[in-house]
Structure formats: C-alpha cells, structure tokens
Amino acid sequence: MSERSERPEGRAERTDIPTDISEIPVDPAHPVVQPGAYLIELIPMPVADIDRAKAFYTDQAGFVCDVDITPADGVRIVQLTPPGSYCSISLSTGLPQLEMQPGSQRGLHLVVKDLEAARQELIGRGVEVSETQDLGGVFYAWFADPDGNTWALQHMPWRK
C-alpha cells in the first residue's frame, strides 16, 4: 500500500491502493457490467488547479472524493462522484491523453428529483446557481466551477 500524507485542510495527498485484488471490497450497490454494455463511469474535467477544484467539488458541490492518487512522478488523479451517481469526474495532471483547456467542459447534467431543493443546497454552500428555467417541461438551473466548466441541474417531472 502507498504511504498517505496529509495536505492542508486535512485532504489526503494519496489514496491507499491495495496490492492484492482480494483486499478490494465488493460493492453490492455498484452496477454489474453486462456483456455488450458500455457504462459511462468517468468524465475528465479540465481544471487549472486540482486542489482548488477538489475543494469546490467536495466542499461546495457536495461530491465525494473517491480517489486522490499520485501513481507516478508528475501524475495526479482525483476522482469525485456526485451524490447518488454511478458516474464520476476526474481531475488530473500529467496525462497527455486527458489534456483539455481548463473550463472547456460544458453542460454536464446532474439529474435531480427536486430542482429547487438542489438549487438551495448549492446556493447555501456558496455556489452561484441560475434561476430555474422551464425548457418545454424539462427544468434546468445552471452553475459553473471555478474554471468555468458548466453544469446543469436537470429535473424531468415524469422520472421516478
């Protein structure tokens, strides 16, 4: 297992990585990957400062930090998951295949049951969220991370 050192504000610098697959617990809530399925589980999020973005997503947007690793010199990967989601975002540095202009990700959707409650929760955490818009029976409110990547809170009333 890797050593774990602390960053400012108690954020772990590294995530312990099991050296033996038997050390990884099975998560019964995680979806099974069926033959022929293509599950979207990780979306790269281009940011200029990983620590600033990680703080925004965990402290203000309420995401959970699943992984924060430095697997090689100059490489860092942080994986964050919105509450209740199977799909996460990754903040990374040192991986040329994931390089994008910070702030260039647009319109990722977070589907919510109660749009006004979700708006108020984010606003209460210091996130600037737009007023709700009705776009033909589907309701949206928008916000951005510190780099300008944009997100939509989306409510579709017919979804259970």
Give a quick set of tags describing it.
160 residues, alpha/beta, 4-stranded mixed sheet, 2 helices, disordered N terminus
Task: Describe what you observe in this structure.
There is one protein chain. The chain is 13% helix and 27% strand. It contains two helices and eight strands. A hairpin with a 6-residue loop joins strand 3 and strand 4. The model is unreliable at 1-12 (pLDDT under 50).
Helix and strand arrangement:
Blueprint: E1 42-44, H1 50-60, E2 64-72, E3 75-81, E4 88-93, E5 108-111, H2 115-124, E6 133-134, E7 139-144, E8 150-155
Parallel strand pairs: 1-4, 5-8
Antiparallel strand pairs: 2-3, 3-4, 6-7, 7-8
Residue-averaged pLDDT: 88
Biggest sheet, spatial arrangement of strands:
1-4-3-2
Q: How many helices in DSSP terms?
A: 2
- What ranges have pLDDT less than 50 throughout 5 or more consecutive residues? 1-12
Largest sheet: 4 strands, mixed
Proportion in β-strands? 25-35%
- The best one-word shape is globular
- Terminal CA distance: 42 Å
Output the helix-strand order.
EHEEEEHEEE
- Residue share in helix: 10-25%
Oligomer: single chain
Helix-strand category: alpha/beta
